[in-house]
């Protein structure tokens, strides 16, 4: 008889190999290949269910009614509150403010009369208390424990019986029932599964803090995101106080909402109207600046693009901050070919205001206008914005959700909007444009001509 041979399986993606390797050949993850025996196919006997299946019309829905955290920006992302029994995973870079935000959530939840349990695996209880005093998040109904063992954490849950659990963080908790070191794929999967089972059984909302890898992805096995109900990412630049909570998965609401916050000395402060954070106020128009409207999830945000065109250089530089460098190179090529601006030998610098990172293609036209304004040293009229995606043929393409973008610009008092041709019906759908004039153009050259930023295109020599 042939000897049965054990295989080695990746705990991350399920890839298998006949021998052990340090790196998975499928997902390229390190240290996730473990020895597993060949699965045995066997029949499973039916068992008597503890609860009988009932028609869906007889299932009570009151226990799943949403509860507000009283933090409007977070409730907006969650879909108007937290569903009891839901498990939320909040991931973000170190120092971005995850613990500060969740301590504020836990305190406000406790002040509403509900028991809240905060489990800290990274700090001692005294350290968390000091941070709570600094941020004003101390309450008698907020229970605090510093634990790293899953069994003890479950014991605290049974004793306190909270309606909200905050676990900071899942990578610091371990159990003897799973193999591997704390934070490993097996440990993280077992911890999350246990918390999810308790949350569903006790109708307790649970928020789990997760770490991220150096690439920005959520650390741990991919199945971690499948085990939870909601996945939130906490984003922000360390050199800027602006923070954003973005939903990437939400079983109970929209998965494209964004909440805006600002880090201050007293903690996390929500920003209900963040448009002013990414624009600058000038007494007089300044060359090389143009405002556009981007979309973060479903929320329109104003963003100011600044450009600087320096003197000719033997080795011209292209430098960006907050923008895609390849997008800048493409826009420069279209400007030179279709609009007559000769910039191949000049340094070009492009940046956003306020540390915003803009990846929306609708920023192309504003970037081109800012570069042309800087090259001619000619400012735009005040309260002017440009909106549109630039094609390689020099044409302008329409952008999604133009109605919301223009309505936001009109609300903030803009007087002129340059948009791609074919969006005429947008002006009829937007309820109030006020005194804002909307001008449609078909190409980049037409947009620059409308703003007085053109140069004659040199004739090709024969």
TrEMBL record:
Domain RecA family profile, first and last residues per copy: 63-212
Residues annotated for ATP binding in this entry: 92-99
Motif RadA KNRFG motif in this chain: 249-253
Keyword Hydrolase: yes
Cited InterPro entries: AAA+_ATPase, DNA_repair_RadA, P-loop_NTPase, RecA_ATP-bd, Ribosomal_Su5_D2-typ_SF, Ribsml_uS5_D2-typ_fold_subgr, Rubredoxin_2
Family label: Belongs to the RecA family. RadA subfamily.
UniProt xrefs under NCBIfam families: sms
Domain comment in the entry: The middle region has homology to RecA with ATPase motifs including the RadA KNRFG motif, while the C-terminus is homologous to Lon protease.
HAMAP family recorded: RadA_bact
This protein's name: DNA repair protein RadA
Originating organism: Tessaracoccus lubricantis
